Every structure is written in structure tokens, then in C-alpha cells.
């Protein structure tokens, strides 16, 4: 597959051949679904908690006598049917995370990248050094390549200044090439990647 390489000011420079196994593979929508569901579940904190009838404050004494009042039988005020009573079947702290097979995760990532490549939403930019760490400088570069909405910038692991500048852009998500997120790639309106990082990405997945 061929991707275009662009300069920092948005001009087309040359063609770059990339691996079909990574960017032009058969798309598996099922694996994308399972991978996104897994990633979102693993992000859940799971700290929601309610009190059962044994944990709320109040006496265990019977509210009123069993017979002779004409009212329905009632026990403790901690009953879930009473105001300020316990919660029946409420949430408790739990771990929502789980694992899916590595082959499914890889297939989902390849499918997501192939889907974006087919839609011409992957943009390769020439290598550049970014030393200032200023959001203003990064925004000047981004406006020539991606729209101002939800987008992904795939960077190297040592791109500290890029991460520093991109952290202040709410619609931009910076991902390391070795720790890609299927959820962000799938919903990203554009994928930006430097040419050298693209080579590292292909080497990392050995394609």
C-alpha cells in the first residue's frame, strides 16, 4: 500500500510504501468491537458502593407490633422498602477488567488501522524535531494536517516535548507506537504519524 508523505506546511513530498499486512488487511469489525469493549471495561474504576440493610445506621427493633394495628407487617427500619433503609442489589466495589486473547487484540488494531487507511485518514508527515514543548508551536503544525476535532498523533516513546505540548490540546490524543489504543484509533477523525515513527511501528509489529 502507498501512503503520501507531507511536509510540515502540508505540501506533498513523496510516496511511501507501507505494509499491506498492517494498513491494507481484511477488516474484522467483530474484533474491533471486542477490543474496544475490553479497553473501556479495563478503564472503569469500579468504586461505586451502596450500603446494604446490615450497614445502614438504625435500630434492629421492630417498628410496631405485629398485630392489631390494621397495617401491613413491618420489621426493622433498615428494610430496603423504608426511607433511609438499605439498598437491595446495589453496586459494590469490583474489578471490571478482563483479558482477551492477544491475537484478537492484534487483529483489532490491524483492522482499525486498515479502516483508517482505506478512508484516507492516516497522514504521514516528514520527521521533525520539537524542542520548545509549547502548545502554540504544535498547533501551528497540526492545523496543516488534521482538522480541529478528535484526532490521534502516534509518537515515539521518547517524544517528551511533543507529549508536553499536546497535553493541552483537548481534541488531540498522543499515543506511543508500541501502546496503541483501538478505541482512540477507531473514533479518531484523523491519524497523524511521523515517517520515522511509522517505520518503528512496522518494525514493532514485524510487518
SSE order and pairing:
Blueprint: E1 2-6, E2 12-17, H1 20-23, H2 29-43, H3 102-118, E3 122-125, H4 135-142, E4 151-155, H5 160-166, E5 172-176, H6 182-187, E6 191-194, H7 195-204
What does this protein look like?
The protein starts with a strand and ends with a helix. The chain folds into two domains: 2-45 and 102-204, Ribosomal protein L4/L1 (Ribosomal Protein L4, Chain: A); 50-90, no CATH class. It is elongated, with a radius of gyration of 27 Å. The protein has helices at 20-23, 29-43, 102-118, 135-142, 160-166, 182-187, 195-204, and strands spanning 2-6, 12-17, 122-125, 151-155, 172-176, 191-194. The protein is 32% helix and 14% strand. It has 207 residues and is of the alpha/beta class. A six-stranded mixed β-sheet has the order 2-1-3-6-4-5.
